[in-house]
């Protein structure tokens, strides 16, 4: 059996793939950053290079 170690950030507009060991978990979903996990308060994006989530 293969165990997944990475998955796409649960934020719908985010392009990031996150390591499960580094992910921020909220409501049983995995996010790449607190901005994504918190629903982008104040319009902030995750800040990762090449990703324009919540723009």
Spell the H/E element sequence: EEEEH
Number of helices: 1
Instruction: Indicate the percent of residues in helices.
Output: under 10%
Any idea what the shape is?
Answer: globular
**What is the terminal-to-terminal distance?**
39 Å
For the sheet with most strands, the description reads:
2 strands, antiparallel
Uncertain runs? none
Number of strands: 4
Strands side by side in the biggest sheet: 1-2
- Rg measurement, Å: 11 Å
Strand content: 15-25%
Q: What structural class results from the helix and strand content?
A: mainly beta
**What's the average pLDDT?**
93
Task: Characterise this structure.
The longest helix has 4 residues. The chain is 7% helix and 22% strand. The strands form two sheets. It has a two-stranded antiparallel ribbon. It is mainly β. The protein has a domain of 35 residues. The termini are far apart. It is globular, with a radius of gyration of 11 Å. The mean pLDDT is 93. It has one helix and four strands; from the N terminus they run E-E-E-E-H.
Give the tags.
mainly beta; two-stranded antiparallel sheet; 4 strands
Set out the fold topology.
Blueprint: E1 6-8, E2 17-19, E3 24-26, E4 29-31, H1 34-37
Antiparallel strand pairs: 1-2, 3-4
Q: How would you summarize this macromolecular structure in one to three sentences?
A:
By secondary structure, the chain is mainly β.
């Amino acid at each position: 059996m293969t165990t997944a170690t990475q998955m796409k950030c649960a934020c719908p507009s985010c392009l990031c793939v996150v390591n499960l060991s580094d992910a921020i978990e909220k409501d049983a979903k995995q996010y790449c950053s607190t901005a994504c996990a918190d629903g982008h308060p104040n319009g902030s994006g995750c800040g990762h290079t090449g990703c324009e989530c919540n723009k």
